[in-house]
Design brief:
15 helices
């Protein structure tokens, strides 16, 4: 009799499968299918100018790696990723340490710092484009007022300074993000260990290197890796400020994929660059996931 009653019920395994099927369907439709389709497209000469396409095997990859501009794009991407990660990371750590002192007004400063993090990247790009404008930018106005410059400098119009301007803008945008996570890591370090180090005669730098940093090592490493991943796939700020110029000085992989696909209409080559880009992202993601699993 009990077997008859339980015949229409699902087992725990079946219920679990039923619950994850909608999520798997959404994942397959929105993420997996476009990803696989892009990889397959990288082996074709597909273009948005004509409907027919042919399989070219590894020809796109050979063209991309032979292209001298692609090497420059990789170098520009590396400089942007490193600069936009290391600089706000260090400044965010310094600001987190200051806010961790618990002085009056620290909570207010923490909230104010987070404001520019919630501003859309496009708006930040327009803001910093105005600051670095060569004719009426506020930076040139300040430098001329101080007597440092006689004429304005086109900061975003020079190959030697354009990428630096984008890195500065990205640093201003992401500093609150690093500060928030690093502050959480700092607050996880036991206070008695810090006080014991001071009692033993350690100065602030020694305490930071030998007590605080080892105590928040896991958080610090994961935040740094997440920063690298985020900057490696970042698009809106460099595009808004410079659109890859001048002379490709700010062309990162994200901009290269966009311009190849939607300006040159070469979908096959764009998919090839995108696949290479995805492999680089997967390397950092693998390091991140492995570290997370080790911590658990």
């Amino acid at each position: 009799m009990n077997k008859i009653k339980n015949a229409g019920r699902l087992t725990d395994s079946q219920v679990g499968v039923a619950l994850i099927l909608p999520g798997l369907a959404v994942f397959a439709a929105i993420i997996l299918y476009p990803f696989v389709d892009a990889i397959l497209m990288s082996f074709t000469d597909r273009s948005m100018l004509y409907p027919e396409f042919h399989w070219v095997r590894l020809e796109n990859y050979a063209k991309v790696f032979r292209d001298p501009y692609f090497g420059k794009t990789l170098l520009t991407t590396a400089l942007f990723v490193l600069g936009s990660t290391v600089l706000p990371y260090v400044l965010g750590m310094v600001w987190a340490i200051l806010l961790d002192q618990g002085f009056r007004g620290a909570e207010f400063l923490r909230g104010v710092t987070l404001v520019n993090w919630i501003i859309p990247g496009t708006a930040i790009g327009f803001l910093w484009s105005w600051i670095f404008n060569g004719q009426y930018g506020i930076l040139n106005s300040i430098l001329r007022g101080l007597g440092i410059l006689e004429t304005g400098i086109p900061w975003l119009g020079q190959t030697g300074t354009a990428l630096l301007c984008v890195v500065v803008a990205r640093t201003w945008q992401m500093l609150p993000w690093y500060m928030a996570f690093l502050l959480g890591g700092l607050q996880s370090v036991p206070r008695d260990q810090i006080e014991a180090a001071h009692v033993d005669g350690s100065n602030n730098w020694q305490t930071f290197c030998h007590v605080i940093l080892p105590g928040m090592r896991q958080t610090a490493f994961l935040v740094f890796i997440l920063g690298l991943i985020g900057n490696l796939q970042h698009f809106d700020l460099p595009w808004t400020m410079a659109q890859g110029g001048p002379a490709r000085a700010t062309t990162t992989l994200s901009i290269e994929v966009y311009t190849t696909a939607f300006k040159n209409w070469n979908m096959g080559k764009a998919a090839t660059i995108g696949t290479i880009w995805a492999v680089l992202l997967a390397c950092f993601s693998f390091v991140y996931l492995r570290r997370v699993n080790e911590s658990e």
